[in-house]
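I hope you will forgive my troubling you with a question about protein structure. I am sending you one protein, given as its amino acid sequence and as whole-number tokens for its backbone shapes. Thank you for your consideration; the sequence and its tokens are set out here:
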Amino acid sequence: MRRALWILLLPTLLLSGCSNGAKTGFERFRALLPDAVHVTAELRCEYDDRSVSFTLHCDETDDGYTVSVLAPQEIAGVSVKLGAEMSQLSLDGVTLDCGDLNDFGLSPVTALPTLLRALREGHAESYWTEGDHTLCDLTFDDHVSAEVTLSETLSPLSAELRSDGRVRVFINLTNWS
């Protein structure tokens, strides 16, 4: 009887150990986040009728974010300044109309600032490991959640931003500092 009980409990104990290690890893990552992050990423944004891809660089500052387009080449060099609440948008005379991915302001331009805010402020719903990677599911607000993958050195590798029950943005982080 005792042996049967141990066999039934062993998977639960092993999974909870992995989950606690992942939670500790994510909490360590969050505690070490600097005040200002600089990130470059490849994004694939999913609309209802099409997909678009961008390579963007985002600088986090005291008063908000600056997002610069690196690709596609046709709009490379365009920079967008977003206020800390992402309600102020300035394009210096150039319009970058890609449209919102949901009804709550998630767009290609706001994707990286949304990810940074989720990493800082999001509520961690669950943690787990896959190989050497730590994963965390974050709820940022009532409309956006993020799944983030961290390397064994706790550097972000990728993320998915979800809204309305679907992944709206796939993010491959190519530079994080």
